[in-house]
Structure formats: C-alpha cells, structure tokens
Automatic annotation (TrEMBL):
<feature type="domain" description="Aldehyde dehydrogenase">
    <location>
        <begin position="14"/>
        <end position="469"/>
    </location>
</feature>
<dbReference type="InterPro" id="IPR016163">
    <property type="entry name" value="Ald_DH_C"/>
</dbReference>
<dbReference type="InterPro" id="IPR016162">
    <property type="entry name" value="Ald_DH_N"/>
</dbReference>
<comment type="similarity">
    <text>Belongs to the aldehyde dehydrogenase family.</text>
</comment>
<dbReference type="InterPro" id="IPR016161">
    <property type="entry name" value="Ald_DH/histidinol_DH"/>
</dbReference>
<dbReference type="InterPro" id="IPR016160">
    <property type="entry name" value="Ald_DH_CS_CYS"/>
</dbReference>
<dbReference type="GO" id="GO:0008886">
    <property type="term" value="F:glyceraldehyde-3-phosphate dehydrogenase (NADP+) (non-phosphorylating) activity"/>
</dbReference>
<dbReference type="InterPro" id="IPR015590">
    <property type="entry name" value="Aldehyde_DH_dom"/>
</dbReference>
<keyword id="KW-0521">NADP</keyword>
<comment type="subunit">
    <text>Homotetramer.</text>
</comment>
<dbReference type="Pfam" id="PF00171">
    <property type="entry name" value="Aldedh"/>
</dbReference>
<protein>
    <recommendedName>
        <fullName>NADP-dependent glyceraldehyde-3-phosphate dehydrogenase</fullName>
        <ecNumber>1.2.1.9</ecNumber>
    </recommendedName>
</protein>
<dbReference type="GO" id="GO:0008911">
    <property type="term" value="F:lactaldehyde dehydrogenase (NAD+) activity"/>
</dbReference>
<dbReference type="InterPro" id="IPR051020">
    <property type="entry name" value="ALDH-related_metabolic_enz"/>
</dbReference>
<keyword id="KW-0560">Oxidoreductase</keyword>
C-alpha cells in the first residue's frame, strides 16, 4: 500500500492527515493521499505566485518544450498509469490507457497551439480626426495563478485539459484532483516533476472538497478557476469567485432525438455507446431519448438487445459496465430506477444491483412526472420518452435545467440543422452520440451546464487576458 504525496514547489510533501483511497470495484485499499491543511495550501499558493514572473517571462517555445516533455513521459508510462487509474475509478483498463493517450494529445496540441498565438494591431476608428493617429498593440498575458479542479470520471484527462492551456499561456497552476482520483492526479504530477518544470510552476493540492474546497476557491492568490464537476459545486464556486473569471463545465442531461427517417441501427448503436460507456458516468452521456411514436417500438427493441449484450463486470476485464464510483452514487441511481418503476415506466432489461454494480437498463414509456426524465443519473439507466412531433421533442429537451449537448438522428441534414438551431445546448451532433471531442473543438454548456468555453485554443484564450498598449503615431 503506497503513501502518495503532493508535489509542491518542486518537492514531494506529505501532510499530517491522510485519506485512504479504496478501489470502487473491490473495496481494496489502493493507497493514501495527504489531506492538506490550510497552512499547507497557503504555502502552495505562495510558491506558485513566486514562480509566476520567471515562467511567464519564458518564450512560448520554451514553455512548449516542457509540455512536450510531459507528454512524452505520459506516453512512456501510459500502461502503468492507466492500470492504477482503472483501479482507482473502476474504469475499463483499455479506456483508462486511452485516457492517458488522449491526455498526451491534449498536452502536445496545447503546446503547439501556444506557438500559433498572435496579437494584433488596431487602428483608431472613431469619428474624431485625431483617432486616426492612434494605434493599439493588443497582446495576451496570463491570468496569473490558475486553480484547476477536476472530477472523478476523467481525473487525468480533465485535469490536463486545464493545466496544459494554463501553462502554455504563461500561468502557474495549483491542481486539486478529485479525492477518488487523487492518486491518478498525483501520477500526472509525477510527469510534470520529471519534465523538470521550474519549482512552483505546477503544484498539487489533495484533500476533500467538502473540507478545503471553499478555502482554495476563496484564496486571494488565485486569479482564475477552471472547474469541471457537478452543478451545485460549480454554482458555489461561481458565488465564491466574485469578480475573478471562471470556466465551469458542469452536469448535463443530453438528449438523443430520433426522427422517423433515421437509420435505427446506427441510432441504437450510438445511443448505447453514448449512454452506457463507463457505466454512464460521463457528463456527455446520452441521458434521455426522444423518439417518434411511429418508430419507438422498433428502436426500443434494438436498443434493448444491445444493452443486454453489454459486458457487466470488472474494470481489468474491460467490462462496459463496472461498479459505480461509490455507494452514494449507486443509491442515487437506484432511487431513479425505483421512482420510474413505481410511476409505470417499463424496464426493457433486468433490474439488478450487486453492491455498487448496477446492471444497465433502458426504461420505455417514461413520462415527464418521473425523476428520470429530468435528473442526471451518472449511471447505467436511460429513459425513452415517446413523442408525437419534433416540436414536442425540442420543447421537452429545452425544458431541462441543463444545456450541454444533444444528438439528432435523421437522414435529412437541412432539417437537422434547423432543429439544432432551436436546441438550447452548447453542441449538437448529427447522427452520432453526444461527446466532448475532438479536444480542439469548443466544448461548453449553457444554462446549468456551465459557463465559458473549453477546448485547447478556447481554454488558452480564457486563461489569458488581452492587454492593449495605445500610442499616437504622429
Ligand atoms: P463534484 O462532486 O462536483 O466534484 C468535482 C471536483 O470538485 C472534485 O475535485 C471535488 O473534490 C471538488 N469539490 C467538491 N466540493 C468542492 C468545493 N466546495 N469547492 C471546490 N471544489 C470542490 O463532481 P464529480 O462527482 O467528481 O463529477 C460528476 C459531476 O461532474 C457530474 O454532474 C457530471 O455531469 C459533471 N461533469 C461535467 C463535465 C463537463 O465537462 N461538463 C465533465 C465531467 C463531469 P472531492 O472529490 O474531494 O469532493
Ligand atoms: O464527463 C465529461 C467529459 O467531458 C466527457 O468527455 O465525451 O469525451 O467522454 P467524453
């Protein structure tokens, strides 16, 4: 059993208090991580602030070289890191290794995107004659100290998607991984340590969000907060952040809208991979299906069979459905299942729970009085809501508090575009599942799904601010 430490100001540090991390699938202890005290957090913030001037003074090429080194180290260690990540969050082994490889791509992409950043020169343009003599040189400068907070479901990837853009833009970083995912976060930190970034540029803070979360968010040294996680925590961060800029990627209730002319085999395949990968624990998982009455029976039967074919089991066996992250999460999903069952929805698959392992189930005939129609399960359960028209599907889709993504399945592209225009979400996919990637695309939610835009270039832009220097040419 290993005792993991935080990486702070170029050193590995333990804390007086520790948190035990258990494997969700087996209950075995995986290791311990420090529970940082407020004084230790103060030291992280002070060290990072001290490292800022030298780091921001480096050229983009120099900062990019460090990031490429980090990426190379992660690529070299992908199997080793993936194996621990898989145990820590009960994610299939192959997907865990893919998460590390995808992280490598993001880091390399961010490094290269930094090299392409340019400023601009503007000429004065007001009605006053004198304005013609004015020039503004507009450049980007870092925000300062970026606090990066990632969720349990992508503890490495959704960390690096914040850290790499922050660093290339010249910021220094304090990274708080999810508690269940801290060991993976520390393994990511090991790559930064080995790459030899100057002391204090990249630091980790472990500890329970419920205990130190508010303290780190409110910390005066922090200039920018990049958070991915649940909507309630995101809202609290927005409140505590005050006037400091934030990037918030929060919960979702992504719809798949299936029209009469859709290729049903394709739609079913995308709905099942979209809804049940990593047991539905993805913000972008398909979380409800709006299907036209006339094709509902046929689609439901294909989806039912595909769901029955999903492999339920252990992460090391690459099962599609594995134990949920903790008992609270499994109880929550069971609550949604019970509510739907009691209110008359029809389960198309066997309902089964063994500890935190919940078998995948589709519910047909879900109605709007059921919690499953509105709440985010973050588990392997999906509602089919039968609709009579596209207008009804759009209306119900937009009635959600969330607005992350949606999918439309149809062969009629102009119609799909017209529907996409009416959906209150950040991204609409046509004939594909809802998903974040590719990672250079903008990724954003509206309403309770977040604020601000992620995606490599967009994150760099968010984590840097414009500064103008204005002068008269004559
Ligand atoms: P969470 O409970 O909100 O936790 C996310 C992160 O916030 C963790 O690192 C957590 O630390 C930390 N945290 C908790 N309380 C905090 C506080 N008061 N101040 C600052 N940080 C605090 O979310 P989760 O359970 O890990 O992830 C699932 C949720 O995230 C779902 O709602 C999902 O939809 C959403 N999500 C959204 C996206 C997206 O891009 N839109 C992506 C992934 C996940 P601890 O672990 O120590 O509590
Ligand atoms: O869980 C939220 C992630 O941003 C989803 O990413 O669509 O690539 O699985 P993904």
């Amino acid at each position: 059993m290993k005792q993991y430490k935080n990486y702070v100001n170029g050193e590995w540090k333990s804390s007086e208090k520790e948190i035990k991390i258990y494997e969700p699938a087996t209950g075995k202890e995986l290791g311990t991580v420090p529970a940082m005290s407020q004084e230790e957090v103060d030291y992280v913030m002070a060290s990072a602030k001290e490292a800022l001037p030298k780091w921001r003074a480096l050229s983009y090429v120099e900062r990019a070289a460090y990031l490429h080194k980090v990426a190379d180290i992660l690529m070299r260690d992908k199997e080793e890191i993936g194996a621990i990540l898989s145990k820590e969050i009960a994610k299939g082994l192959k997907s865990s290794i893919s998460e590390v490889v995808r992280t490598v791509e993001i880091i390399d992409f961010a490094a290269e995107e930094g090299l392409r950043l340019t400023g601009e020169v503007l000429e004065g343009g007001s009605f006053e004659a004198a304005s013609k003599k004015k020039l503004a040189v507009v450049r980007r400068e870092p925000q300062g100290l970026v606090l990066a907070i990632s969720p349990f479901n992508y503890p490495i990837n959704l960390a690096a998607s914040k850290i790499a853009p922050a660093l290339i833009a010249g910021n220094v970083v304090a990274f708080k991984p999810p508690t269940q995912g801290s060991i993976s976060g520390i393994l990511l930190a090991k790559a930064f340590a080995e790459a030899g970034l100057p002391d204090g540029v990249f630091n980790t803070i472990t500890g329970r969000g419920s205990e130190i979360g508010d303290y780190i968010v409110e910390h005066k040294a922090v200039n920018f907060i990049s958070f991915t996680g649940s909507t309630p925590v995101g809202k609290n961060i927005a409140k505590l952040a005050g006037l400091r800029p934030v990037l918030l990627e929060l919960g979702g209730k992504d719809s798949a809208i299936v029209l009469e002319d859709a290729d049903l085999e394709l739609a079913a395949k995308q709905i099942v991979t979209g809804g049940y990968s990593y047991s539905g624990q993805r913000c972008t998982a398909v979380k409800r299906v709006f299907v036209m009455d006339s094709i509902a029976d046929e689609l439901a039967a294909i989806v039912r069979d595909k769901v029955n074919a999903l492999k339920v089991g252990q992460p090391e066996d690459d099962a599609d459905i594995t134990a949920l992250i903790d008992t609270k999460a499994a109880d929550y999903v069971e609550g949604l299942i019970n509510d739907a069952t009691e209110k008359g929805a029809k389960p198309l698959n066997e309902i089964k729970r063994e500890n935190n392992l919940i078998s995948p189930v589709v519910f047909d005939n879900v109605t709007t009085d059921m919690r499953l129609a509105w709440e985010e399960p973050f588990g392997p359960v999906m509602p089919f809501i039968r609709v009579k028209s596209v207008e009804e599907a759009i209306k119900l889709s937009n009635a959600s508090e969330y607005g992350l993504q949606a999918s439309i399945f149809t062969k009629n592209y102009p119609r799909a575009f017209a529907i996409a225009e009416q959906l209150e979400v950040g991204t609409v996919h046509i004939n594909n599942k809802t998903q974040r990637g590719t990672d250079n695309f903008p990724f954003m939610g509206v309403k309770n799904s977040g604020s601000g835009t992620q995606g490599v270039r967009y994150s760099i832009e968010a984590m840097s601010r414009l500064k103008s220097v204005v002068f008269d040419t004559e």
